[in-house]
Structures are given as C-alpha cells and as structure tokens.
Amino acid sequence: MRSIISLMGVNPADDKLHRFETSWLFSPFVLAILRGLISLYCFVTFIVMFAWQGTHGDNLSSRRSFSYFTNLTFWGVAFYFLVASIHTFLYARTGRSVLFDKWPRWLRALHSLFYSTVTCFPFVVLIVYWALLYTGPWYPVQFDAWTNISQHAMPPFFSLFEIIFSTAPPPPPLHIAFLILILALYVGLAYITYATQGFYVYSFLDPGEGGKDRGLVAAYAFGVLAGLIVIFGVVWLLSWLRVRLVSSKRIKFATKGGDVEVWDARRGGLDEDIEINLAERK
Asked: What keywords does the record list, in alphabetical order (predicted)?
C-alpha cells in the first residue's frame, strides 16, 4: 500500500521540502496571496455568471452548468487554489505544514493528484473548445465574451503559474491512468445527462440518428484521450525543466521566526544547510 501511495507522488524523502507549499521565486506568504487571488477570481466569476443568468431569464444554463467539463474543470481550479492557498498561508504563518505534518499520506497522495488535474485538464478545455466548439463570430455581448475567456482561456495560465513557480515535482506517471479514468467517468456523465435531460453537452458526443456517427464519436473520444496524454507529457517535461533550471535557487522555507532561505537539493535530498534550518521548527 505504501509503495502505491509513493507512486502517487508522495515520497517520504520529500516531506521536509514542502514542495506543494513553496516557490523558488516567492516567499510562502506571497505564494499564498497569489494562489488566493486566483481562487477568488474563479469564485467571483461563478457568482457573477449565476447572478447574470438568474436576472436575465437564463436559469436553465445555471442548472445545466455542472454537466459541462469546462465548468467542472473551472470549479476544480477554484477549489484547488483555495485549498493550496490555505495550506500555504498556514505554513507561512506557523512554520508547520498541515499537508505534510498532520494529514495522512493517502490524503497527500490525493492532493498530488488534484495538482495533476489542475495542471492538465485546463489545457484539454482550451484545445477542445477553441479547436472544435467555437465557430464565431466573436460574442456580441461583452458578458458572454468575458465568461468564455475566463473559463476557456484563463485557466491554462493559472496552470502555468503552478507549473512554473511552485516547487512541486513532475507529476508521477501513474497519475495519467487516473486522469484517463476521470475523463472516462465524465463521458459517462455526459450520456447520463442526455438520458435524463435530453441534450448533448457537446455536439461531438452525439452519435446521430440510429448511431450512424458512432465511429466519428469514437474518433473524437480517442483524439481527446491522445491530447490528454500529450498534455500530461508536456506538463511533466515543463516541471522537470523547472526543477533542473531552478535547482540552484534559494527556496524560502517557513519557520516560526520567519522565512529562511536554504538551498534546494537537485535530486530531492536534504543537504546539511536544509537540515539545520528545518531543525529550527522543532
């Protein structure tokens, strides 16, 4: 069991490095603020969107919103950055980590998987929407333009923020299996939506009358699957490059007396300076 959890991105050797709560550029407190601002923007977007739809006679769109992969991904981004911001703030405030000092290892593994979903799925949304679904012309209503940019264009930049500026390790290869499973479960949800509400959330999922377009639907599905695998590989590569490029940067670890700059180890081990500074928390 422990070996499986380690394959999920929770290596005991990394516990003291606090990779999900530190940045090679920002102090833990600044990182917490930036993550909190991203989360705030996402939640404000939802509030404004639901309020607008409710006051403009479009409650149906609000009720159907949870059937769309775009919205589910955006909710995931909002909650990830909220949780990550809270963890990072508590770490910056107390010098101790709720994520690594108090949570059981299986919850840390789930947090690592959550990170992988947030750094991969927004790119799937970006490509599928702008390449397959958007046909133009540009939205005549500014509100529609803003919501679509917020949900279909901005999340990948939030993902890049995590990939580039955090010290999180490259996503474990095992995560791709879970990402594929999540995507498959969503396809099931899409067809449950059709069975219960009578509409296809995305036109390319419609097999046509008598199932004549089933082959085309399968082609789209495998195309999206292939895209996800490529995206995961690119995210892994970018994360690996960041680790290599910033391995000699000073990482600010939080202590009760304030942030302390220490050298990050290239291969995830702890050098003597890190051990000395982390010992100050005891």
From this structure: Membrane, Transmembrane, Transmembrane helix
